[in-house]
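Cross-posting from the chemistry board since nobody answered there.

I work mostly on the small-molecule side, so proteins are not my area. We synthesized zinc ion and want a rough idea of how it might sit in this target. Sequence and SMILES are below. Is it possible to get a predicted 3D structure of the two together?
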Amino acid sequence: MSRQALDQLKQQIPLLDYLQAHCWKPARQLSRGRLMGLCPLHSDHKPSFLVNPLKSLFYCYGCGRGGDVIRFAELYHQVKFPQALSLLRQWRGLAPLLQEAASFYHLQLHRHTEAVTYLYQRGIHSAEVVEHMRIGYAPGGCLRSWLTQLGYPPASLRETGLVTANGYDTYMHRVIIPLESNLYGRSISPSAPPHRFLPGAKGGLYAWEQAHQYPEVILVEGLFDYATLWQAGFRNVTCAMGNQLNAHQHRQLSDRPRTVYLAFDADSNGSGQQAARSLACRLRDHGVNALTVSLPSGQDPNSFFVQDGDARQFQSLLEAAR
Ligand SMILES: [Zn+2]
């Protein structure tokens, strides 16, 4: 990549936009528009991360690291320079398009009874949680024409993975949940693979911006587990989208001393419990008080609530966690 192309990429992705899209918030403003906040690169307790939005540069007084948006992407995602460039290019293309697609899918939800019925079956019935998570529905066969009408070129639709190489909508008959830089699609039809993501990273922990302020956090595997817990009144909940954490999610959970309840699926083959136990060990090595929650056999937090479990009963499971 030429010097010129690098400069262009940096111009197109202001550091502050990129930081905010990754849930960074300034704690205070300094002179000349500079901002100070908690460092997303190390366990920071008092704001030591300085951002100069005019120059698109950062410097951390805590861990001593600094640079431009490319350097930030390298450190944040723990990748090498070329990979950081491709993540940034992908993010640049994805961000506005994904927003547009998420809004479109969100509008479709209430136009399709099969989607609402599916949510009910999965125990999701409050409008509040649907709004909070911006849950949507992909009927299939209509996103491409909508985005094309808005002027997005076919090539970028394919690049994001929203549209297949043959020009069809990728997501069809799926409940859609937007993530920080991806869209999760849950099939409502039993014949299709249940879980899908668009190409690219799943990103950090779900809704971490809200959950991280609590001294005790509940970690679940699936977004429907998250939805039912949130609906039941648990706000200190987050989701890894699977039972294996990526490096970034691991760093988020252990960014300060806290208690983490691992409420993974009680699979009949024991894989969820096994994953929870090994994750608990790794988190304890990082000073986290990690406790594993035992759900009734064959259940996950979502099915626990669907099968008439309530917040008080789930609370007792948390208290019994060890
Ligand atoms: Zn730092």
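Reply from a structural biologist on the board:
Welcome over. Reading the output above for you: The longest strand covers residues 174-178. The radius of gyration is 21 Å. Happy to explain the token format if needed.
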